[in-house]
Design a protein that fits this description.
This protein has 235 residues and is an alpha/beta fold. The protein has two domains: 55 residues, no CATH class; 159 residues, 3-Layer(aba) Sandwich (Rossmann fold), CATH 3.40.50.2000. It contains nine helices and seven strands, in the order H-E-H-E-E-H-E-H-H-E-H-E-E-H-H-H. Strands 4-3-5-6-7 form a five-stranded parallel β-sheet, sandwiched between helices. Strand 1, helix 2 and strand 2 form a beta-alpha-beta unit. 36% of the residues are buried.
């Protein structure tokens, strides 16, 4: 595979990546040289549209938005919700996302089974921004090879703290302990512990949410990202 990448990218002056891990992997594998590599950081979001609500939520409302495939950490979110709900029954959990046709997707049967359990709610098709306004903490326990997850960028832009995994792409969005928490992949216990921190100290929701918005303003302004991209490709 490295040979194919190297052959395809041989004559390029620039190779643009969304995250540092992918860039370093290509350099370490001898696929490209370091001077060829440029890390864009993210595709960016409209910060005017995804602006913070007038009244942030400080309640234990945890929302995950993702395609319902295993690599997005859906089962870890469900298992963490079970752990937290057993100790803190007033916590709320929402999972937004559609079923996918690929092999590792879940089925309608899985969805019905989860709904009948009553631990996590599935709102169906909703306006994402308006639903984020009803959220306290955004969660994405993905182990999918992400660029920089757009769902996290949007959540940070509206001023939500984030719990995500310490994996490529996801880890670039969170300064652990500043605007959220990084947890190991495939570890619902650690995920639940991070959720419980927000339940025990709800003031962290608003405080870390403000940091998320600050970071998003610095890194994820779509107009600034587009300008950087255009300059990289000499447009």
């Amino acid at each position: 595979m490295n040979f194919l990448y190297k052959f395809a990218l041989l004559d390029l002056n620039r190779v643009i990546f969304l995250n540092k891990d992918d860039s370093e992997q290509f350099i370490a594998g001898g696929i490209i040289s370091r001077p060829q590599s440029f890390v864009l950081g993210a595709i960016g979001v409209d910060l005017d549209y995804f602006s913070p609500p007038d009244l942030p939520v400080s309640a234990p409302v945890f929302t995950m938005i993702a395609r319902l495939v295993r690599e997005k950490g859906v089962e870890d979110f469900l298992n963490a919700a079970r752990i937290v709900k057993a100790q803190y029954p007033d916590a709320f959990f929402y999972l937004l996302g559609g079923l996918d046709d690929q092999k590792k997707s879940f089925t309608n049967y899985d969805l019905c089974r989860w709904k009948s359990e009553g631990i996590v709610s599935f709102p169906g098709h909703v306006n994402v921004k308006h639903f984020l306004y009803q959220t306290g903490v955004f969660v994405l326990p993905s182990y999918y090879r992400e660029g920089v997850p757009r769902s996290i960028q949007e959540a940070m832009a509206v001023g939500l703290p984030v719990i995500t995994t310490d994996v490529p792409g996801c880890r670039d969005t969170v300064v652990d302990g500043l605007n959220g928490f990084l947890v190991p992949a495939h570890n619902p216990v650690s995920l639940a512990q991070a959720m419980i921190k927000f339940i025990i100290s709800p003031e962290m929701i608003v405080k870390m949410g403000r940091e998320s918005r600050r970071i998003a303003s610095l890194r994820y302004n779509v107009h600034e990202v587009n300008q950087r991209l255009c300059s990289l490709i000499d447009l």
